[in-house]
Amino acid sequence: MGLTVGRRTLLAVICAVAVASIYATQPVLARIGSELGVPAARLGWIVAAGQLGYLAGLAVLVPLGDLMDRRKLMAGHLLLTGVGAALAATAAQAWMLLAGLVIAGLFAVVVQTTVAYAAALSTPGERGRNLGVVTSGVVVGILGARVAAGALAAVWGWRSVYVALAVLLVTLACLVLRTLPPDTRSDHATYRQVLTSLGGLFRERLFVSRGLIAFFLFASFGTLWSGLALPLAAEPWQLSTAQIGLFGLAGLTGALGAARAGRWADAGFASAVTGGALALLAVSWLAIGQASWSLWLVIIGVVVLDFAVQAVHVSNQHLLTMTHPHRTSSVIGGYMIFYSLGSALGATTTTTVFAGAGWTGSSILGAAFAACALVAWASSRRVVSKLPQVVHNPTKGYI
């Protein structure tokens, strides 16, 4: 069937807004804690609430996309994410805020249903390109949420962030039903069968190898974005929260530049792109580690790191959806479990390492995660080489 430019753009926006509902808390944590009386030692639970909801949604909600019309599922999940954002915006007590964030995180897995929908509607030769565009919305949401939430909170308070998200989510739900084509299922599998099938993926070498790459990839990503504020706020820079948030723009530049990785994957170079990007990921930490004396090197390193992460992420999803075209929701949901666990590992370890060894120690940690991902890729090359490749030929079409 294929996807038009307009539909690809809408799907990318859905990913950006949905994922922003999880990450929007990070730049406004101090304000939330001050207003709702949350001790500094417990502020981490505000971030964790959305992540825990998201992890649960990956396991129990995303597989529904292999049973139901994904268009209707996306609209419903967008509305329920909006309900969670609205509850967070009106929370008078900390427990109400946490409940709202858990609900928002649970149904924000609409991101993965959206990616699966894009893969299902793509012709084989354009799947990588479409995934590159749509998943770029995820990175825009993760990094852009820091900038946008900080700006809104500075003018209208932290609650305005969630009011804006709720309005956007409801609007997108309406647009999904009005503008996207139905996505009917031809099989009649039960929910239990789909969950069993999801469990079976963890016994497949290709799925596990790509999952391990994602685990270490996003551990390295989490090491950067959960720890970078620490050296930037310290001597000699002492940057403000708003100034630190602007580093997200450098990350966006790199991530959006990697959208072309989808075209390379379509041409049959997904494995080579993965290996090259992982090497770049490891090298990027040489520049990022110089935060004590050069911000320009940090910016260059951030651009390279986010380019590498997005290129690998797109290539991984291209290979997995090409291998499992009839259960794209389950395979993407399972793959993203590795992503969530890796992100959590990077976020929790970088602050601990920084406390004992400074930013140099955190940079070594990030590079070590990148090296582990590179080892996982190298060990899986034989598996990938046996897969059929979909390559574009100008005279013969896609072969």
Pick out its properties.
single chain, about 400 residues, mainly alpha, two-stranded antiparallel sheet, 17 helices, about 75% helix, about 0% strand, globular, disordered C terminus
Q: How would you characterize the overall build of this protein?
A:
Mean pLDDT is 84; it is low at 389-399. By secondary structure, this protein is an all-alpha fold. A hairpin with a 3-residue loop joins strand 1 (392-393) and strand 2. It has a two-stranded antiparallel ribbon with strand order 1-2. The chain contains 17 helices and 2 strands.
Short description:
This protein has 399 residues and is mostly helical.
Topology:
Layout: H1 5-23, H2 29-36, H3 44-60, H4 70-89, H5 94-107, H6 110-121, H7 127-156, H8 159-179, H9 191-201, H10 205-227, H11 229-233, H12 241-245, H13 247-257, H14 261-266, H15 270-288, H16 295-323, H17 328-385, E1 392-393, E2 397-398
Antiparallel strand pairs: 1-2
Helix pairs in contact: 1-5, 1-6, 1-7, 1-8, 3-5, 3-17, 4-5, 4-6, 4-8, 6-7, 6-17, 7-13, 7-16, 10-16, 10-17, 13-16, 15-16, 15-17, 16-17
Estimated share of beta-strand residues = under 5%
C-alpha termini separation: 18 Å
DSSP summary: helix tally:
17
Q: Major sheet: size, sense and barrel closure? A: 2 strands, antiparallel
Question: What is the global morphology?
Answer: globular
The count of strands amounts to 2
Oligomer: single chain
Helical proportion, percent range: over 70%
Rg (CA only): 20 Å
The arrangement of helices and strands along the chain is: HHHHHHHHHHHHHHHHHEE
Please mark out the parts with pLDDT under 50 across 5 or more consecutive residues, or reply none: 389-399
Structural class: mainly alpha
Rounded mean pLDDT is: 84
Strand order of the largest sheet: 1-2
